[in-house]
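LAB NOTEBOOK - FOLDING QUEUE
OPERATOR: T.R.
BATCH SIZE: 2
PURPOSE: Compare the predicted structure-token outputs for two unrelated chains run back to back under identical settings.
PRIORITY: normal
REVIEWER: second-year student, initials M.K.

ITEM 1
FIELD SEQUENCE / FIELD STRUCTURE:
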Amino acid sequence: MTAHVAYTPKQRMLNAYRGIHSDRAPVAPEFWYYYPAKLLGVDMIEFSREVPFHQALKTTFETFDCEGWGVTSAGIPSEDVEASGSEQWTDEGRLLVRGTVRTSYGELTSATLYDRDEPAWAVERPIKDLERDLPAFEHLTLADPEKLDPATMLKARDEVGESYLLEAWLGVPFFDYFGSSREGGFERAIFDLIEHEQRLEALRQRHTEHLCRLARVLCERTPFESFFIGCSWSNNSLLGPQLWRRWDKPGLTAVAEEIHRHGRLLHVHFHGRCMETVADFAQIPFDCVCPFERPPGGDVATMDDLRECARLLDGRTTFNGNIHTVETLIRGTPDDVRREVGEVVTAFAGSSRLIIGTGDQVGRETPEENLHAMIDEAKRLTRRG
């Protein structure tokens, strides 16, 4: 009977997260920044500062007639905080945005560089001296979730409707939370884990408590079916499985348990290599993980790797991704794209926990015919009834 049911893109995604068959498997290229900006005809500065993200994704998914996911969030106000900033155009045509935050625990400064062709990046991070800056950073970033007003998130959800799965953004794992704000970046943050383990363990616990409370507030005040946790450095390629299990897995487990207590779903982004921790994903359990990248960025390379992912996920966690965004979607032919789609579908044959997605973000250089080949082939191979 499923073939006669008219499923929406959002329903197909949710069914895949829950392990329920739809009329076919969802096909969800990760349209994030580059392709929506290209489709809308704006540069990356205008896209990031002026275009509503959820609306840009809606236009993109509807244009390609496929499923997908995106995120929305709302800031939590902090007491006794004053913020100021300045903007300056550089000689290279970039926009330098500086910010200063004054709290009762001290002052934090940071800077971000915006480029017309690339997403913005940090050029100055707020935590420069651990002893001096950490109290102010905690006060600013771990504010009471009870003060959150979800009105803008609910408005975005209503505007997206059934076009795709809009998820509530919770944040990032602990190492990304700390490391991305530490002057010196990844390397300095790794040394901090060694040199200040006790202090950072206490911060990790407070970060976990904050994410769990935020998840609880959002579950109680909104109807969002699914929640999202992102990642930058918290993966096997950079942090490694041992440190990931030490610093990030406990918090992710606690958040998953909190979300599941409310009958909601958790989607986790895990860049890069992942084969050593696929079993952990199902153990936690996450409801969906992406993007299971192929080499050189990832290590899900062969049919044997795909089948091993299916075995380790054990019908408990949904697989989303694996179509190579560079070698196949940008440099390959439509036949190359169809071949990779076929590999993923074959490895997960019969499984309801499959989303055919991309190995991370779709590049702006991607030929449109390759995207159509991915979407059409996924629909053809997984159509039921």
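ITEM 2
FIELD SEQUENCE / FIELD STRUCTURE:
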Amino acid sequence: MKKVLFFTKYTRMGANSRYRSYQYVTYIKKNGIDVDIAPLFDDKYIEYIYSRKKLFIGDIFRCYFRRFIKLFSLKKYDLIIIEAELFPYIPNIFEWLLKVFKISYILDYDDAIFHHYDEGFLKKILLGRKIGNIAKNAKAIITGSPYLTNYMNRYNKKIYEIPTVIDLNKYPVEKAAMPKIFTIGWIGSPYTEDYLLEIYAPLKEFYKGHNYKLVLIGASQKMVEKLKDLPIEIVEWNEGDEVGHLQKFNVGIMPLPDTKWTRGKCGFKLIQYMGCFLPVIADPVGINKKLVKEGITGFLPREKKDWISVLEKIYKNEKLQIALGNEGRQIIEKKYSIEVVHKNYLNILSNIVNKKF
């Protein structure tokens, strides 16, 4: 039996790894390929970074050392799938050794991690060419957004754009009942919560004449103070409960500043919202412009003040909420579910494992 190894960045607790790697395992095994997963960082590490506690260098060294030891077993695998890079902030010595020992690997990107290395004199000197060098030797590269595809296309022509998608089996086939209080919802982590500050002013202005609550899944308690004077409810993220909480929203939001980092994002929040029959509002940055159909599935306010007017439209019109949510769900079912995209993913893996390219 053919065998592949995923070098993920995180365990299932990390959204990137959970949706880009772990959720494909069942499909890969059904296709007659055995799978092992070796995350770089463990649950303890993820809990620390989400709580913003200080990490001990020993914890990071332990994670790196465990991955280093795993490298000695690579010969028993037909293919390695690497989430971004083997060792963050270390030159591409180990990826180069994969080439030397003729070990086939695929790279998967759902963030513009290459921008970590293009700022700061020392980082640019030591690591500025790292991602490009890794990409050149990959059998294929899977990306989650057009921005990432365009960047990787400089180094490798075998690029396959596969969005970060949801498992529809976990998302009910009907819209949940409307909440009693109009609920503006957001899902994320302490690392992305500050994007909400982008729309603090319009949310505060909107609150003057409207009864609503702002529910934040996965944010830290610090956001209560940062977004003071807003009716905030913080919900602790849990994989088993996230869909149930999402269903309690009237509208899902994704504010983003326009930066080189955010242009590479894959818009997964929007995909989750639309999977729950929710209208969406997002800043027109990166893939958001592709995912959101203006006036059909949601809105892309160009100015911060425009957030007030589009929230007003959705707030006043329950029929519009339902119509936008239904359109969004149809798009997810056709293009952004694991049930649809896993076939493309399996084709890439199978062709490499079976030496077809």
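REVIEWER COMMENT (ITEM 2): DSSP finds 16 helices and twelve strands in the chain.
FOLLOW-UP: none requested
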